[in-house]
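Input record (Table S2, row 377):
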Amino acid sequence: MAGWLEALEGLAASRAKAGLTRRLRPRAAGAAVVDLAGNDYLGLATHPEVIGASAQSLRTYGLGATGSRLVRGSTSVHASLESELATWLGTPAALVFSSGYLANLAAVRSLAGVCDLIVSDAYNHASLIDGCKISGGRTVVAPHNSPAAVATLLDGHPGRAVVVTESVFSVDGDLAPLAELHEVTSSRGALLLVDDAHALGLLGPSGAGGVAAAGLSGLDDVIVTATLSKSLGGAGGVVAGPAQFVQHLVDTGRTFIYDTALPPAVAAGVHEAMRIARAADDRRALLTARGAQVVSRLRAAGLEVSSPAAGVLSVLAPGPEAALAWAEDCRDRGIAVGCFRPPSTPDGSSRLRLTLNAGIRDADFARALDVIVECSP
Ligand SMILES: Cc1ncc(COP(=O)(O)O)c(C=O)c1O
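Output record (pyridoxal-5'-phosphate complex):
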């Protein structure tokens, strides 16, 4: 086909002009970088017991799952991970996917099969948005964190509906009003789907997540999804809820059926990480203290920083180029921070995203905050 590469070059030039080119930077093993960019909130990705459990399973099962669990068989590692996840989240059942993205695609698409309206928060993660898109169902985007707007949308809809939200939002780190949202959904016979990606391991009793913190665990009108790649330091995703829904996903969830399963070695590492995370109140307390430390240090320097509900904070930048240069200057000085620009930012304003990590030493953490201030535009 003639001209398609030129068309791509034209699009790349427009992105470059808008300051939106993305670059892959090399990441050296064990680099002496203070990580405020990843999502290893509890510092478990490199925990020796997590690595040990994973290595043992690697020797038993080999590198990959070698197929879908429906075709290749379901290992005891997957089964026990799912049963422990269900216990932790307080749900009757749970199903593990090979990523949080795929878990969300399956959950939203499947719910659209029994609901004829999806109400999706304006700041939802791309995986939830894509779930709405591939579901083919009618989707209405609700203003961010507005139970009143959700109530109005549901009141205008006589059929079955599902409301889709994150618990802790992935860019600004603010918390959804889950209890109020559930009051709105349950009083109108609607379902509530909550992506607990950034709250699992951080909020709620024993780190059981934002849904547990809001007292909504185990309700038959609440579905929880989460990634196993953040506080649990591994990879994979989970959908947790009523047993009938989980069976429906096994029967019809395309990203479960037609996807090679999560490698058993990853499942085993995540299982061990979960055991540690459940008992990690000390790490959670450290993260709370660190969130307060970031806010006071950065606000004292005149920077506009969000208040963290869990482990994510954002610091406003004057524009996309300034955000990029700021993040690069920090990185040059050994501090990794996230740089979020449109279209990854829900409201079109660029910022640094800082993620807390309980595995960082106090002195390194304080130095990281100094560097962020010193490099600010
Ligand atoms: C809110 C949210 N949901 C889902 C995902 C996707 O999870 P995964 O990386 O496991 O695909 C992410 C990010 O990674 C996220 O931030």
